[in-house]
Design brief:
mainly beta; four-stranded mixed β-sheet; two-stranded antiparallel sheet; 33% strand
Length: 153
C-alpha cells in the first residue's frame, strides 16, 4: 500500500463511455476493474472526471456561450457569419442594426443532455471596429455621420 492508503496498480487502459452532459466530479466508473481486495475479488475502479476549459466556449449548464466578432458594416447592414460550434461551424444570419453585446440563440448547438437532446449555443456579438481607415472609408463615414444628429469631428 502507498502512504495515502491506496494500492499501487499495474497501469492498463479501460474504455468507458462518458455521457454528453458529464461535469467535473468524482464518479463510480467501472465495477470489478479496481484493485483486488482482501476477499480476493476486484473492487470498483473509481474515475475522476475533469472537464477541460475551452478557449472558445463558456459552459452554462447544458448551454454554451461563444463570442463572435462581427465587422461593423455587417452589424449595421446585416449579413451572415460563420459561428464555431462543438461539432464544426454553422452560418448565422446577422440582422440589420445588430448591437455589440447582443446574443443570439442557436438551438440544439450546446452540450448533449443525459436524457437526450442538446442545450443551446448563445452567440454573443462583439462588433469589430477597424483599427485603420482608408481615405474613402473615412469620407463615407463622414457622409453617414452628417445624416445623424451627433456631431463628428
Amino acid at each position: 500500500m502507498s502512504r495515502a492508503g491506496f494500492t499501487n496498480l499495474n497501469m492498463h487502459s479501460v474504455r468507458r463511455h462518458a455521457p454528453g452532459d458529464i461535469r467535473s466530479r468524482p464518479s463510480s466508473g467501472v465495477p470489478g476493474r479496481g484493485s483486488t481486495g482482501a476477499n480476493g475479488r476486484a473492487g470498483d475502479l473509481y474515475v475522476l472526471i475533469s472537464e477541460r476549459p475551452s478557449d472558445k466556449f463558456t459552459r452554462k449548464g447544458d448551454d454554451l456561450e461563444v463570442e463572435v466578432q462581427v465587422p461593423y458594416t455587417t452589424a449595421a447592414l446585416g449579413g451572415e457569419m460563420r459561428v464555431p460550434t462543438l461539432r464544426g461551424s454553422v452560418t448565422m444570419k446577422i440582422p440589420e442594426c445588430t448591437q455589440s453585446g447582443q446574443a443570439f440563440r442557436l438551438a440544439g448547438q450546446g452540450i448533449t443532455k443525459l436524457g437526450g437532446g442538446r442545450g443551446n449555443l448563445m452567440a454573443k456579438i462583439r462588433v469589430a471596429v477597424p483599427k485603420k481607415l482608408t481615405d474613402k472609408q473615412r469620407e463615407l463615414l463622414r457622409q453617414m455621420a452628417a445624416t445623424e444628429e451627433e456631431v463628428v469631428a
